[in-house]
Amino acid sequence: MSPVLAALAVTFAVLGARAAYPTPFLRLQALAFDTLQRGAGRLLSDGGRDDVVVIDIDDASLAQIGQWPWPRDTVAGLIEILQDSDARAIGLDIVFSEADRTSPRRLAADWTSRLGLAVVWSDGATGPLPDNDDVLARVFARGRVVAGFGLIRDPNGAGRPKAGGLLRQDAAQLEALPPYRGAIRNLPALEQAAADQGSFMVAGETDEIIRRMPLVLKLEDAPIPSLVLSVLRLAHAQPTAVLLRGVRSTGMTGAIVGYDLEFAGRRIPLEVDGSMRLRFSERGERSTVSAAQVLAARHDPEKREALRQRIAGRIVLVGASALGLVDRRATPFDGFEPGVNIHAGAIEQIMRGDILVRPYWAGSVETFLAVAVAVAAATLVAVTRLRWPVGLLAAAFAATVGLVWTGYRCGVLIDASLLLGLPPLAFVIAALTRHYVAEREARALRTAFKQYLSPALVETLARDPSGLRLGGEEREMTFLFTDVEGFTSFTERSEPSELVGALNAYLDGVCAVAFRHGGTIDKIVGDAVHVMFNAPLDQPDHASRAVACALEIDAFARGFAAQHPSGFGVTRIGVNTGPAVVGNFGGARRFDYTAHGDAINTAARLEAINKRFGTSICVSQATVERTGEVTGMRFRAVGGIILEGKAAATEIYTVVVPTAANTAHFDRYDAAFEALARRDPDASDQMRRVHADDPQDPLAAFHAGRLDAGDSDLVLNRAA
Predict the structure, then answer these.
(1) How much is the pTM?
(2) How many other CB atoms are found less than 10 A from the CB of residue 699?
(3) CATH classification of 476-655, choosing from 3.40.50.150, 3.90.226.10, 3.30.70.120, 3.30.70.1230?
C-alpha cells in the first residue's frame, strides 16, 4: 500500500467522521478557541470598566436586606436611586413574573379571607393599601429601565413579550434561528411601564460552557432582541430601530449563514444561530457595586453623591452573584461566572467594537489547507527522508499558530484543531505505512535472496533496497565457476548417504567462502557452483573480490580433499570479467535472479581449461586488469588461447599466494615467459631451466613440454 494512499484514506475517514459525528470535533474546536482566549486574554480596559457598572445582589446584600426575592418596593427603591444617579440605561437581569406576595394589599386581602381580620389605615385614611408591584411599575415608568424576560422551548401560552425596535429585512431570514415557543414574562404592568425589554437567555454549548451571547432569538416566528441589545439601543442618545439582515452563502443554495445587526452606525456580525462570539477578559476587576451599598446610600447624601459620580452617564446592569440564587455560569476563564457579568462583558465588547467573527467559509478553507498540508506531508514521507516532512510540519505548525494568533487579534476566529491535528496524523499514518511496506519488502528480499547472498548482504539490502534493481540491466560483472575433479567417478563408487553428506559439506564450505567475499550464488549444478560479483548491489572492487574468493575456495578445497578418504574436493576454478545482463528471468510461476552473457560462458571455459594446464585457477586478462596490485596474491601468465566461438585469443593467468619460498621461482618464470613473448633466442632454454628448478610447477612443466614438441607460439591451440 502506498503511504500517500493510506494517509489519504485516514484523512478522508476523519473528515467523514467529522461530518457524521460532529460533537467530538466541535468540542475539540471549542477547546482550541478556549486555549486561544487564555493565551491572548486581555486586561479589562479602563473604558470597559467605566462604561458598564454591575449592581450585584451578592451574599452580603442578602445578609443585610434579607432573602430573595426582596419586596418589590425595595427593588423599586434600588432602581430609583440608580435613576436619580443619572444612569444612562438600567438593564435588569431579573424577571418579575409573579405578583409580590409581601405587598400590603395582598397581605390584607389574605388576612381577611383566611382570618377574618380587617386591615385599616391607622390615621383613618380611606382607599386601598399600597401594592409593591404598582410601586415598581411607577419607578419603571420614570424611564431608562430595560426589563429582562426568559424564553423556553415548550409552548406555555404566555404570548410574546413586549420588545420593540427590532426590524427584519425579509420574512425568510429567521429560518436558521433556534426556535423558542414559550416565555417567562414580567407582570403586564411592569411590561407596559418598562422602556424596553430583552431576553436574558444565555445557553452553554455541549459542554455547558458559555462562549456566545444570543443577540437575536426567535419566538413564534418573530425576532426577539436580547437584554444586551435592548440595553445598548436604549443607551444610545437617539434610540433607533435595529435592522436585522440575513447573510446568505454565495453557493447555489444561498442558505442563511449568519446575520448582520445594524443600528446607530454600528454593525454587529452574528453567527447563524443569532449569537455573538464572546471575547472574555482574563484579568482585572469589573466595576461592581453591591446592591446593599446602593440601598445604604438612600438616606446618606454623601454616599449618594459618591454613587452618582460612579454611575452617571454609564450603563447599569442589575443581577445576582449570590451562590444561593444559582445564576453562575461556566466560561473559558471561570467555572462560576455570574450571569450578569457575562451580559456586561458582551455590552463592553460591542461598545469597543471588539467583535469576534468566524466567517462561514472559514471551515471550508481550513479543511482544504489541512488536507493540502496532510497530502504534502504524506507525499514527502513517501519520497524523501523524514527530515523534510518533519520540517514541513514544523513550518505548518508555526504558520498556523501565527495565523490563528493574528486572526484573533484582528477579530477573526480560525479553528486550529484541524490544521494542527490532520497533517501530523497523516504524517504518522504515512510513516507507519512506509515502515510496514519497507519491512514487507525487506522480508521479501530476505526470502528471495537468502539462497543467493550472504546474510550480511541480505541485511544490507533489507535496510536499503534502493541499491537493488531487479528489472534487468546490463552491467560489468565478474563471474566465478567451480567444478570438482573426478566427481563422476566419485558418485559411481560412493554410497548415496556418503555422496550426499560429502557433497553438502563441500558445497556449504564453498558457499560460505563466496558469501564472505560478497558473492551472489547464481546456481549450484551438481558439484559446480556459479558465483557472480557486482550484483545485485554495486561492488566497485568486484574483480579483486572474485580473485580473492577463488584463492580461498582453492585453499578450502585442498584442505577438504586432504581430510576426505577418497580425496574428494579438489576443485578447478575459472574467473572472468565482462558485461552481462542481470535480473529476474522466468515466467509468472517461477523466476530466477541470474545473469546472461558471453562473459559467463568464458568463465565456464576457463574453469574447464585448468585440466590442460594442470592449474587449479584460471583468470582472464580482463579480470587481472581490473584487479590491479593486491597484497597477498600474484598473477602468473599462462598464454593466449582461442576459445570456441572466438576469433581473438584470450589471455589467461593463474593466481597464487606468494611466499618467501616460491617468490624467486615465480620471478624466474615471469622472466622466461617474457623472453618467450619477445622471441629471444634463448627463451626456450630459459623456460626449461625454470622447469628443472621446480618440476612440480605445472605452468613451467606445460611450457617446457610444449617447447620440446616444437611449439613456441604463446597463442595456444584452440580450446574446446
Answers:
(1) 0.63
(2) 23
(3) 3.30.70.1230
